[in-house]
């Protein structure tokens, strides 16, 4: 099957990313504080991770407050949110059992977003969130390497096969070495970069969520099924979580 990747351009000049306009629903009436929920014996809720239809979710699967994030691993606004918010979100809210957090990939930059996304999901539940957080910590280096591609290199990719484009971009960003240092063998990493089922799934997910208006920029946050309009930073999201009773 011809990959939907061909419908995504190769924008090596990273597109602007960020949420829409609004006030992050701050005008909604505040809910009463909810009680904490005990985690399974021998675990805390940050260790409970499962795959969903569109991403991976951390925390109490029955949490009364469900936070969904659509993000790009190369998006500077997503990176800023992660670097400021990952620890307080997981330690103060997910661990309480009141909040679950699901991350869903959105390829806002097209093809360049695919290598980190594919490698981020390569090992499944065990490493998904640690690798996500560490990719955001290292994001600037990935973007700098991507921007350093010469015009000749970029031209060579224009007519290349989708899988070859993905592998070339992964090598340019030195992503294979990055995941090798985090327990993913090179052979497995390269296999994940060639997984056309995942390539098509992630590309379709991006196209569908853009077309139906769910995502207009990254990061996009949804709280208990309702978009947090204008929420981009950790303070925005934290205020919404507290308002919901977290």
From TrEMBL:
The residues covered by the Thioredoxin-like fold domain are 53-242
Give the stretches traversing the membrane.
none
User: At the top level of its lineage, which domain of life is listed?
Assistant: Bacteria
Q: What keyword terms does UniProt attach to this protein?
A: Signal
Keyword field contains Repeat: no
Signal among keywords = yes
Family statement drawn from the similarity comment of this UniProt entry: Belongs to the thioredoxin family. DsbA subfamily.
For this protein, the record's PANTHER family field holds: GLUTATHIONE S-TRANSFERASE KAPPA, THIOREDOXIN-LIKE REDUCTASE RV2466C
Record-given protein name? Thioredoxin-like fold domain-containing protein
Source organism of this protein record: Sphingomonas parapaucimobilis NBRC 15100
Q: What is the lineage of its organism?
A: Bacteria, Pseudomonadati, Pseudomonadota, Alphaproteobacteria, Sphingomonadales
